[in-house]
UniProtKB/TrEMBL annotation:
Pathway: Bacterial outer membrane biogenesis; LPS core biosynthesis. GO terms for molecular function: transferase activity. It is an enzyme of class 2 (transferase). Residues 78-148 form the DUF374 domain. The keyword Transferase applies. Transmembrane segments: none annotated. Its EC number is 2.4.99.12. Keywords: Transferase. Residues 290-466 form the 3-deoxy-D-manno-octulosonic-acid transferase N-terminal domain. The keyword Calcium does not apply. This is 3-deoxy-D-manno-octulosonic acid transferase.
């Protein structure tokens, strides 16, 4: 018992020491007025432009100062990643814990000597892999035990093995010299400091030189590092040598203020959010047994191995990422996938479509920092993939601090959302620049995302054009075809309040010429089915197991996951949330799902959420503005089967144009973690 208590006290004391040192060091470095003298050839390497990497080398004595170099480089390229070789001893582990929250990740190991395995060979392999995967690697040639300013062979061996250049760094600042073997510089607050970065050493050129022995190179390395230390010690008002840029930089955290404001606002509101979730339960929008998932608590055990997290808000986004999830699972046999959604309907759809032990589902926690940390602590994803317009500043910031690469697929930015984010330009920029890459749905979306701050964009392409046709229960399809034999069928899909009365009016107009017509009214939110049936005159509901009779004009199809069934029953489809008068202002819905099954398609004019998709399908989609025009279109389709077939084939060709997009994006996703 006493031994356990002593151990606990030591752990607490160590945590307190690490925290105190981190706070002091961060304060001292960020209040120092820094001058950076950076060689023009070294700048793109130190900021990892276009994925370039290098071995960054500096004397052990300036190790406490080097986070300042990282804080200078990171804002210039938010995708930059850094790993530092740190000894496996107690001091080394403490240094690693101090700098880890600053996204400076460590590789443990030092040179093997005297027959002792200090992890040098394993560390060398990890550093080589990091360099080859667009990650900078920092190393102290004389560390961790010296002698002071005498380079060992590790820097040369690493650079040769990885085939990467070496960038040498010198630094000094207002501080005190510790009485350690390296006479380490310990910074003092509110002082002056200078970083000097030399031109890169090209290892290919070095290997081609005649006198390129390791001993000669080591002497040259020592001399060059000493020169950088001398350059850093020169007064800041002195001009830099030719080929060097000089800038004075404040490393104040004020640049993070827009995100900090969002973070504080979410934290202040968090006590009220459980009551909000409880209210949603009363409306059927939350599952009582799983509502704590919205606060970051897990309800399932974490699967072992590498886990990639996909997030899709609702049904449409969930459907779009299923081929991408399948492609990732096919390319990596040991991969595990976590899918989060925001809505109950999306969760139910996922349960119907995916039966795979390597895929688990949870609800996305609300964007509260404490809840997000709880979620990430438990699931520990290796990478995160967000979908369409799912942009959550706090969660993205948490992933960023943990060095979890985040990607955006099918990126969507409507005109109204673009205007809204422009009013919070700082938040948008800090959020979007943290994405490892963005794959936009269209060129227009890509342009808006880039204007808001996205820095690395892949080829555009809509995942909704890459999904396979919606599945169907063949036995149920055969049964319904028999029950509805001889009837002309029109499906009004994803309808919203304010337009269903217009659809009913159109159905009555169609019936004048085609008494056998049946209109399927498929609400976007199936829970509205019962009320919708009453509003339309107590028409039959599929959700209640009712089949329309010959006298029924309308059939409310309020089930989930059966669109594949309805699109195969109805050769003509009207896409809802698009007619003038719809509540919420409209915006349209995904036209690709009926298009993939060759349906003739009509829509209202309010399609601003899918502008690009409807523009691509302009030759095959008819726009109607009211009940009368919808009725005219439907009568034309029923009267001209060949025309209807041609229109269906046109949109089907467009909707299947990007069949290989999931495989291409899956490779980009997996490249972030392997």
């Amino acid at each position: 018992m006493l031994r356990t208590l002593k151990t606990d006290c030591k752990i607490l004391a160590r945590k307190a020491g690490v925290w105190s040192l981190r706070q002091y060091l961060g304060f001292a470095l960020k209040t120092t007025r820094w001058t950076f003298r950076v060689n023009e050839q070294a700048w793109p390497l130190l900021t990892s432009q276009n994925g370039q990497t290098a071995v960054v080398a500096f004397w052990h004595e300036i190790l406490p100062l080097t986070p300042a170099l990282w804080w200078w480089a990171e804002p210039q390229n938010p995708h930059i990643r850094l790993r530092v070789l740190i000894s496996r001893n107690r001091d080394g582990r403490m240094i690693a814990d101090v700098v880890a929250p600053w996204r400076i990740w460590s590789i443990a190991g030092s040179s093997d000597s005297k027959g002792k395995n200090k992890g040098g060979a394993a560390a060398l392999r990890r550093m080589r892999a990091s360099l080859r995967n667009a990650t900078l690697v920092a190393i102290t040639p004389d560390g961790p035990r010296g002698p002071r300013r005498q380079a060992q062979q590790g820097t040369l061996a690493l650079a040769k093995l990885a085939g990467k250049p070496i960038v040498l760094v010198g630094a000094t600042c207002t501080g005190i010299r510790l009485k350690t073997w390296d006479r380490m510089i310990f910074p003092l607050p509110f002082g002056h400091g200078t970083m000097a970065c030399a031109p890169p050493i090209d290892m290919r050129r070095h290997n081609q030189e005649e006198n390129s022995s390791s001993e000669t190179f080591t002497q040259q390395l020592e001399h060059a590092l000493d020169n950088m230390m001398h350059l850093a010690q020169q007064p800041s008002n002195m001009s830099s040598p030719a080929g060097y840029s000089q800038e004075k930089v404040a490393l104040s955290p004020l640049s993070l203020m827009p995100s900090r404001v969002w973070q504080v606002a979410a934290s202040v509101l968090s006590p009220a959010l459980p009551f909000f979730l409880r209210w949603r339960q009363t409306k059927g929008k939350e599952i009582p047994a799983r509502v704590r998932e919205k606060m970051g608590f897990s309800s399932l055990p974490r699967c072992s191995g590498n886990l990639v997290w996909f997030h899709a808000a609702s049904v449409g986004e969930t459907v779009s990422i299923l081929p991408l999830v399948a492609a990732c699972l096919a390319q990596k046999a040991d991969l595990q996938v976590l899918v989060t959604t925001g809505t109950v309907t999306a969760a139910r759809l996922l349960a119907q479509r995916v039966v795979n032990p390597r895929v688990v589902h949870q609800f996305m926690p609300l964007d509260v920092p404490r809840w997000g940390r709880r979620f990430l602590d438990y699931w520990q994803p290796k990478a995160a993939v967000f979908t369409e317009s799912e942009l959550w500043p706090n969660m993205l910031g948490l992933c960023h601090t943990r060095n979890v690469p985040v990607m955006l697929v099918n990126g969507r930015m409507s005109a109204s959302s673009f205007k809204g984010w422009q009013r919070m330009g700082g938040v948008a920029r800090r959020m979007l620049e943290r994405f490892a890459w963005v794959s936009a749905r269209s060129d227009e979306d890509a342009q808006r995302l880039q204007q808001l701050g996205a820095t690395k964009l892949l080829e555009t392409g809509d995942l909704k054009t890459a999904a396979p046709p919606l599945p169907v229960d063949k036995a149920e399809l055969a049964r319904l075809k028999e029950c509805l034999a001889g009837r002309r069928i029109l499906a009004a899909v994803s309808t919203h309040p304010g337009e269903e009365q217009q659809i009913a009016q159109a159905a009555k107009l169609i019936r004048r010429d085609y008494p056998d017509v049946l209109v399927l009214v498929i609400p976007r939110h199936p829970e509205r089915g019962a009320d919708l049936s009453v509003m339309l005159g107590y028409v039959p509901r599929r959700g209640a197991g009712q089949i329309p009779t010959e006298d029924d004009l309308l059939w409310v199809c309020d089930t989930l996951g059966e669109l594949g069934l309805f699109f195969r029953l109805a050769p003509c489809v009207f896409i809802g949330n698009s007619l003038p008068g719809v509540l919420g202002g409209g915006g349209g819905h995904n036209p690709f799902e009926p298009a993939r099954l060759g349906c003739a398609i009509a829509s209202g004019p309010l399609v601003q959420n899918f502008t690009d998709a409807f523009q691509h399908m302009a030759a095959g989609v008819t726009i109607v503005s009211n009940a009368q025009e919808l009725a005219v279109w439907a009568r034309d389709m029923f009267a001209n089967p060949f025309k209807r077939q041609q229109l269906g084939e046109n949109v089907q060709h467009i909707a299947t144009a990007n069949a290989d997009l999931p495989e291409r994006l899956a490779k980009h996703i997996l490249a972030q973690i392997w």
